[in-house]
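Subject: sequence -> structure tokens, single chain

Hey, anyone have a minute? Need the predicted structure for the following. Not urgent.
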Amino acid sequence: MPNCRRQKGLSLLEVIVVIAIVVIVIALIATIALSVRRQSYLVGCASNLRQIAAAIHMYVADHEQLPPSWYLYIEPYLGDSRVLICPADRLAVPLQKLASSYTYSDPESYYRATSFYMQQPRYHNSIQMDPNFVMVSCDHHLDWRIIFTNSPSNAFPSYDTSEMPPRTFIQVLRYNGAVNRVHLCDIRRIWGVDSPGLRVFFAVYPGMEDYAYGTGFYYDLPCNQEAR
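Reply:
Had a minute. Here:
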């Protein structure tokens, strides 16, 4: 009569070890996938910004001046209006229904306001422009937390900018066509006076001619050594 051996199953400890290994592997895969997705968003955003730069310079070539406002003037020079939407945008276009994810810094408003404040005339045109002037910026890569308010005056969701975001670099497009990432804590404020006499401030970035005039931090965040 053949010997019948009783097969021994996995012990509870072995089952727990197997489950722990599976969980760790899944967590690693999810982390890698998230990192790859974020990197793809940055690459896609940078491609958009370079196409926007090309559109701005084509407008300048045709009109011998910078566009007086944002996307309405350069959109005809873009092959696809989806270039105006950042792949990482979770707020502006999807929820607020805005036409573009990107923030445009109008050089005319900037130089006019800072001329009043610095008490000296400051001119700009497509020839005299600071090549490192940041014309377009994108803060959708910061992973800000989205908050909703029930206020009738502010029915749209917004980013919670009261705390340091999980990621601390924004992507910018300079007038010379360069696309850079800039740390939040390196962005300064430069003051100006608007035409009605109101005191206003603008963002000034490392590399810009006016960066030495910047004071404080553009974002009201705890920009200390730990934030870097």
